[in-house]
Amino acid sequence: MKLSSTRIVTKDVTGLAQFYEKVTGIPPAGNADFVEFRTSGSILALCSQRAVNAHNVGAATPAANRSAILEFQVEDVDAERSRLQSAVREWVQEPTDQPWGNRSMLFRDPDGNLINFFTPVRR
Length: 123
What we know:
Blueprint: E1 5-10, H1 13-24, E2 29-30, E3 34-38, E4 43-48, H2 49-55, E5 69-73, H3 77-83, E6 90-97, E7 102-108, E8 114-120
Parallel strand pairs: 1-4, 5-8
Antiparallel strand pairs: 2-3, 3-4, 6-7, 7-8
């Protein structure tokens, strides 16, 4: 089995795509109802509420997630914090060394989804 993608349903694909392009540095591929960001390990997809309603009415609600965390391994958490200062509106946790060996920070995207950027701490 292979996890191929994670899809976020949103009311504003264009706006959220602009945010994730800034966060990932990857240009989105798609249209006003569906875009993908292809990373080396998986795909992050954004889908409009309109598309969900057309094919799977009521299956997902935008901006309602409070249980999943999107996690991205990055080279330098502190450098990413500086780079994203103006793009992120809600910081949840500043860069912090975690007891399991990662340095991580948490922030929310414009729809409230939680994102973790982490770097394994080299000892």
